[in-house]
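Researcher: Good morning. I'm working through a list of sequences from a screen, and I'd like to move beyond sequence-only analysis. For each chain I'm collecting a predicted structure so we can compare shapes side by side. This is the next one on the list. No need for commentary yet; just the structure.
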Amino acid sequence: MEGLGSHLRRGLALAALCAVAVGGAAFEATAQVVGVPDGIANCVWLKVTAKGSGFELLDGSAGLGPKRSITAPCYMQLVFVAPDANNPHGRYGAPILCPIDAANWAPSSMDASFSGKALGDGNVIAVDDYLSFTNAGGDIVEGYGTHRLLITVDKKTGLFKSAMFQTLGAEMIDGSAYFVTPSLVTGGYVAKGTSLPADKVPPQAKALVAGGPCPP
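Model: Good morning. C-alpha cells for this chain:
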C-alpha cells in the first residue's frame, strides 16, 4: 500500500507534465505564421536606396584604383503576378526607376528588374536577382543579389500596412561605374527601402510606369 509521500510525488509529477503541455501549446499558438493575403501589395510604391562600395578597375588590368562609394535613390511600383503551380502565393515584380542624369529618368531593363517569389507569411524572396540602380550624377550600381521584401498588414483590419525592402547580400559588378573618373567599379552593395504614399513619389518616376497595369 502506497504511502502519502508516494501519492504526493505522483501528484507533483502530473502537475509538472500538465504545465509542460500547456506551455508547449501556448508556444505553438504564438509560433503560428500569420497569413498575408496574396496580392495585397499590388501597385504599392517603395523608395529604395542602393549604396555601393568598391574599388575602381584601372585600364589594361593595371590594378585597383581608389575606393569609391556610390549612393543611388530610386523607386519601385510593385506588380503582383497571379499564383501558379510553382508559386502558390504568386510573385511580385518591379522595374527600378531612377534618375540617369540631372534632367532625365529611366526604368531598368526587364533583365535588371526586381522579381521575387511571394511566401504565405508576407515575405517575398528574390534569389540571384540582377538589379541596376543609377543616380543623377550618372553613377551605376548593378549586380546579382538576394533580396527580401516584407509585407505587413494591420492586425485589426487585415488591410495593407507597409512593405520593407532589404538586400541580404549582393555584388557590385559588370557596368557598375563611378562617373567622375569615369571608371568601372567592383565591390558590393546594399539596397534598403520602405513603402510610401503615391503622392510622395516624384512625377518622373510615375511617368515611367504610366499606362501600365496600375492605376495612375
